[in-house]
Amino acid sequence: MGRSPLPASTELLAALDRWVEAGALRALDVALTRFIAEDGDESDPAVLLALALTSERNGHGHVCLDLAGALQNPRLLLGHLRDDEPLNPTVRAELSGWLTGLSLSDWTTRLSASPAVASPAVASPAVASPAVRARLPIGSAPAVDQGPAPFVLAGTPAQPLLYLRRYWRYEQQIRDGIEQRLAVPLAVDERALRGQLDTLFDPAPFPDQQTDWQRDGEHNGHPDWQRIACGLAARHAFFIITGGPGTGKTTTVVRLLAVLQGLAAHAGTNAPRIELAAPTGKAAARLTESVRSEAQKLPDADRTRGGIPTQVKTLHRLLGSVPDSRHLRHHSANPLPADVVVVDEASMVDVELMAQLMDALRSDARLVLIGDKDQLSSVEAGAVLGDLCQRAERAHYRPETAEWVHKVTGHPIPPALIDGNGGRLDQAIAMLRKSYRFSEAGGIGALAKAVNTATEPESEPESDPEPAQRLHTVLRLFDAKQDPELGVILRTPLADTNDPAFDELIRAAYESERSYLRTIRDQAPGHDADQHAIDHWAEAVLAAQKRFQLLTPLRQGPWGVEGLNQRVIELLRAHALLPDSGGAQATAGTPMGASPRQWFAGRPVLITQNDYGLNLMNGDIGVTLSVPDGPSTASGRRLRVAFPSPDGGVRWVLPSRLQQVETVFAMTVHKSQGSEFTHTALVLPDTSNPVLTRELVYTAITRARERFTLLDSNEAVLGDALMQQVHRVSGLRDGIHE
Question: Which listed residue, of 185, 319, 378, 645, carries a Cα 20 to 30 Å from 686's Cα?
Answer without folding.
Answer: 378
